[in-house]
Automatic annotation (TrEMBL):
Cofactor annotation: Mg(2+)
Catalytic activity: adenosine + ATP = AMP + ADP + H(+)
MF GO annotations: adenosine kinase activity; ATP binding
One Pfam assignment: PfkB
Location of the Carbohydrate kinase PfkB domain: 25-337
Keywords, sorted A to Z: ATP-binding, Kinase, Magnesium, Nucleotide-binding, Purine salvage, Transferase
Species the sequence originates in: Friedmanniomyces endolithicus
Function according to Swiss-Prot or TrEMBL: ATP dependent phosphorylation of adenosine and other related nucleoside analogs to monophosphate derivatives.
Enzyme Commission number(s) from the entry: 2.7.1.20
Name of the molecule in the record: Adenosine kinase
Enzyme class label: transferase
InterPro entries: Adenokinase (IPR001805), PfkB_dom (IPR011611), Ribokinase-like (IPR029056)
One Gene Ontology CC term in the entry: cytosol
Length: 343
């Protein structure tokens, strides 16, 4: 079957409820300034407080959905499709509209009972604390993927956000195994420190299928701690990730670790030297919002993978898109659209 989509992304579609906060608000809900957690009962008042008392902005979110919009930004129209689960409500309509504006195709499963998932994003300075109530996003079913399997067959590469390991390991593994069978790239994001920490077993189940694994330095050190690597050296962790046992021997695994304003570290399976890439510099005054900068990097990088670009170009595309995202509110990209300055 001829490929229709350059990239298929699977994860949790969320509405970001984003507002300025302060130490008192973080303390009230037991949040760290720069973190991502799943909401518990004690966090449920946060969303209303952000909406009513702090002039919150409602933005399309969910890490892999942000990455999908980012990849689409750099690819020809209708190149990327995103799959996940939402509720039948006005918040889902906001997501549909934002994706339509970005030219991103979606195929949602609509849950009859749960509302669309939401993520409270508390901004303090250049930090952002994210607290996610998955709701409908947690109701994704493998049956939906099977019913839409032609989309999987029509896609050249697959990207799954690690957050989906809290929802459907089955669906993640179905894509991973298809990628290995058909020699298509399978990309996984570590997503947040709690994934390697509390979802170690499902993460390890997917590891043999990773052609690309991407994360930031806190996710990498969390992985190192949960896997008893006895090091926080980012290069050493990247090399460990790159050289884990691998299912598809036709592709060398590539591990990518971003470090905010510090250089991006990349290890390639079987290669002794790691590669380092300085980030695109951006003045602090230009930074509007760091939410989704990592998602933007992944979007640019995997757009490059989809186009068959060399590794250095993929990294540059990721860093270029992340720098654009930092200048925007929320996990978004500038319109009218800017064009990547290919050499």
């Amino acid at each position: 079957m001829p490929a229709t989509y350059e990239l298929l992304c699977l994860e949790n579609p969320l509405l970001d409820i984003q507002a300025q906060g302060d130490e008192a608000l973080l303390e009230k809900y037991g949040l760290k300034p720069n973190d991502a957690i799943l909401a518990e009962e004690k966090h449920m008042g946060l969303y209303e407080e952000l909406m009513e008392g702090r002039d919150a902005k409602l933005l399309a979110g969910g890490a892999a959905q942000n990455t999908a919009r980012g990849a689409q930004y750099l690819l020809p129209p209708d190149s990327v499709i995103f799959i996940g689960c939402v509720g039948k409500d006005k918040y889902a309509e906001i997501l549909v509209e934002a994706n339509k504006k970005a030219g991103l195709k979606v195929n949602y499963r609509y849950d009859e009972e749960q509302p669309t998932g939401r993520c409270g994003v508390v901004i303090t300075g250049h930090n952002r604390s994210m607290c996610t109530d998955l709701a409908a996003a947690n109701c994704y079913k493998i049956e939906h993927l099977k019913e839409n399997w032609e989309l999987v067959e029509q896609s050249k590469a697959y990207y799954v956000g690690g957050y989906h390991l809290t929802v459907s390991v089955e669906a993640t593994l179905a894509l991973a195994k298809e990628a290995a069978k058909e020699n298509k790239p399978f990309c996984l994001s570590l997503s947040a420190p709690f994934i390697p920490q509390f979802f170690k077993d499902p993460l390890d189940q997917t590891a043999p299928y990773w052609d690309y694994v991407v994360g930031n330095e806190t996710e990498a050190t969390s992985y190192a701690d949960s896997h008893d690597l006895k090091t926080h050296d980012i290069s050493a962790i990247a090399k460990h990730l790159a050289n884990l046992p691998k299912e598809n021997g036709k592709r060398k695994r590539i591990a990518i670790i971003t470090q905010g304003t510090d250089p991006t570290i990349i290890a390639v399976q079987g290669e002794s030297d790691v590669k380092t890439f300085p980030v695109h510099s951006i003045d602090k005054e230009e930074i509007v919002d760091t939410t989704g900068a990592g998602d933007a990097f992944a979007g640019g990088f995997f757009a490059g993978v989809a186009k068959g670009e060399k590794l250095e170009t993929c990294v540059d595309m990721g860093q270029w898109l992340a720098a654009l995202s930092l200048r925007e509110l929320g996990p978004s990209y500038p319109f009218p659209q800017k064009t990547y300055p290919s050499s």
